[in-house]
């Protein structure tokens, strides 16, 4: 398993205020477990107290400082492990929305703390022996960590359009259920009980993409995952994703990625390829 999937970094027992340097690749997201003490976030040094989980997407690198007496553990997460951890079930939409922006989740209940610590320990054990690393195990550990955070996370109330946010959440939930059936946007709107134009406005405003683009990106993300992680023939992948034949699937995929499915699979099979980072499925494929 490549280090490009995930890394772990322990930062224990700060004897004085100490800036954290994230020692993992650019573009990696950060999941930080503040086991105890105080974390200062950003240039304004906003104080957050442990035990708590914090997350920053790959494009967010706030300045982090451990105050004296604090300790922390950090996971560096690629887009690939995040997508694998989230999965493709109807409830996955809640995890997707959780990791779109930075979040903090305070572990006020003592029983949760040893559970989080154990999951980090398992992660560390998995990374100790490169020849035995299992992406399935690590993505499972990450999924449990994200679920634990989701259960105690309370989003800040910054929106005056909660109804629109709820429409978007329900739309994305429906997409998870039906993207393989290739529903038309009008059918999603009818099922949600909203006008087509309103659904379009909400999606464009909150994600920068139309409803159709969101559906297509979800299909593309799943296609990339299957091409990358399975040896299934294109005909089987096409059928599983709701295409009538491999030719239609290939045309759709190439229009979205500028590569045929076969060419994409060839690139991602070469870990040292210069094109891999740009072509590998990214979390941004399904915002």
TrEMBL record:
SUPFAM superfamilies documented for this protein: Homeodomain-like
UniProt keyword list: DNA-binding, Transcription, Transcription regulation
Gene Ontology terms, MF aspect: DNA-binding transcription factor activity; sequence-specific DNA binding
HTH araC/xylS-type domain: residues covered: 169-267
PROSITE patterns: HTH_ARAC_FAMILY_2
Name under which the protein is recorded: Helix-turn-helix transcriptional regulator
TM region positions: none
Xref: InterPro entries: Homeodomain-like_sf, HTH_AraC
Pfam families, per the entry: HTH_18
Keyword DNA-binding: yes
Entry keyword annotation includes Transcription regulation: yes
């Amino acid at each position: 398993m490549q280090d490009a999937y995930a890394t772990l970094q322990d930062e224990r027992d700060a004897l004085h205020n100490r800036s954290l340097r994230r020692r993992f690749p650019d573009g990696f997201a950060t999941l930080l477990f503040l086991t105890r003490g105080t974390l200062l976030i950003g240039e304004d040094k906003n104080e957050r107290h442990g035990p708590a989980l914090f997350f920053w997407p790959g494009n967010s690198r706030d300045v982090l400082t451990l105050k004296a007496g604090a300790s922390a553990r950090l996971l560096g997460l690629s887009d690939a492990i995040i997508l694998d951890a989230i999965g493709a079930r109807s409830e996955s939409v809640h995890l997707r929305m959780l990791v779109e922006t930075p979040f903090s989740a305070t572990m006020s209940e003592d029983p949760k703390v040893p559970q989080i610590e154990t999951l980090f320990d398992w992660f560390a054990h998995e990374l100790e022996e490169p020849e035995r690393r299992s992406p399935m195990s690590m993505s499972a550990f990450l999924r449990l960590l994200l679920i634990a955070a989701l259960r105690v996370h309370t989003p800040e109330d910054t929106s005056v359009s909660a109804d629109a946010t709820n429409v978007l959440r329900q739309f994305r939930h429906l997409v998870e259920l039906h993207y393989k059936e290739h529903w038309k946007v009008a059918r999603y709107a009818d099922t949600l009980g909203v006008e087509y134009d309103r659904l379009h406005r909400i999606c464009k405003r909150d994600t920068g993409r139309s409803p159709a683009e969101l559906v297509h990106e979800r299909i593309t993300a799943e296609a990339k995952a299957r091409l990358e992680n399975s040896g299934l023939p294109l005909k089987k992948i096409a059928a599983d994703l709701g295409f009538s034949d491999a030719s239609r699937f290939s045309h759709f995929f190439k229009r979205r990625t500028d590569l045929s499915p076969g060419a994409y699979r060839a690139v991602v099979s070469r870990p040292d390829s210069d094109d891999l980072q740009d072509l590998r499925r990214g979390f941004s494929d399904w915002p």
